[in-house]
Design a protein that fits this description.
InterPro entries: cDENN_dom (IPR001194), DEN5A/B (IPR047278), DENN_C (IPR043153), Tripartite_DENN (IPR037516), uDENN_dom (IPR005113). The chain is 31% helix and 20% strand. By secondary structure, it is of the alpha+beta class. A hairpin with a 5-residue loop joins strand 4 and strand 5. The two termini are 38 Å apart.
């Protein structure tokens, strides 16, 4: 039986430099996009512990849900703010496990990956020239559209690219907690503080491994109807578990639902739920 720990796994997903850049077919690869706008396969790079008997690790599910759009590449000219999201893995027996992921960008230090990205851009630009160069006898079309002089919007867009001699290449990476209960706010704080410790010029008070070990082995699940306070890297973290007589745990801000959908849509969704209509949310 599960020992009632706050978290079961700590997971890292990202770029596997050994396998290199593999197109991510599941995310709907579009080779007409510039290489920086394409998505590539991410991998589970590490997890700790290796396995727990009450919650077997599903590598394929965790890897896909941690980075549902695969790897993303950017340069120093792009915004690289960390993004947080959560997910649920439902097993065949109906049991659930919860995941919380913080995705951020780190500099690519592998020369092979940088060279591969540069090669993809050379190939993309060569194909672009072949597809978009007008016939030599179509001078009127050239003069009217400006394509011959390279001044069209579409032609300029292709130069929003990557130059290995000029640009710094960044790739997305993800740190994740797999937990038996959906303590979203607490998990978000844990991951944000771990990320802050990695990117801070000053090292944290203790090695990062000690904080990860603590969250996995020394922080228990709070009993029903009780709250729990434990130490993060830079400050305390609090979570509260409802009692059996209260509504089930829902640790997500309802305000965001209204901000994303609007009041009228939320009322309509609530009406549909009360009338037991089927509801499908479609999103990118």
């Amino acid at each position: 039986s599960a020992p009632g720990r706050f978290a079961d796994y700590f997971v890292i997903c990202g770029l596997d430099t050994e396998t290199g850049l593999e197109p991510d077919e599941l995310s709907g690869e579009n080779f007409e996009q510039t290489p920086l706008r394409r998505t590539f396969k991410s991998k589970v790079l590490a997890r700790y512990p290796e396995n727990v008997e009450w919650n077997p690790f599903d590598q394929d599910a965790v890897g896909m849900l941690c980075m549902p759009k695969g790897l993303a590449f950017k340069t120093q000219a792009d915004s690289r703010e960390p993004q947080f999201h959560s997910f649920i893995i439902t097993r065949e027996d109906g049991s659930r496990t919860f995941g919380f992921s913080l995705t951020f960008f780190e500099e690519v230090t592998s020369k092979q990956i940088c060279s591969a990205m540069q090669t993809l851009y050379h190939m993309h630009n060569a194909e672009y020239d072949i597809l978009h160069t007008p016939p030599t006898n179509d001078k009127e079309s050239c003069s009217s559209t400006g394509d011959c002089n390279g001044t069209s919007v579409s032609k300029l867009q292709r130069f929003n690219s990557y130059d290995i001699s000029r640009d710094t290449l960044y790739v997305s990476k993800c740190i994740c907690l797999i937990t038996p209960m959906s303590f979203m706010k607490a998990c978000k704080k844990v991951l944000e503080q771990l990320h802050q410790a990695v990117t801070s010029p000053q090292p944290p008070p203790l090695p990062l491994e000690s904080y990860i070990y603590n969250i996995l082995y020394e922080v228990p699940l709070p009993p029903a109807g009780r709250s729990l306070k434990f130490s993060g890297v830079y400050g305390p973290i609090v979570c509260q578990r409802p009692s059996t007589s209260e509504l089930p745990l829902f640790d997500f801000p309802v305000k965001e639902v209204f901000e994303l959908l609007g009041v009228e849509n939320v009322v309509q969704l609530f009406t549909c739920a009360l009338l037991e209509f089927q509801i499908l949310l479609y999103s990118q």
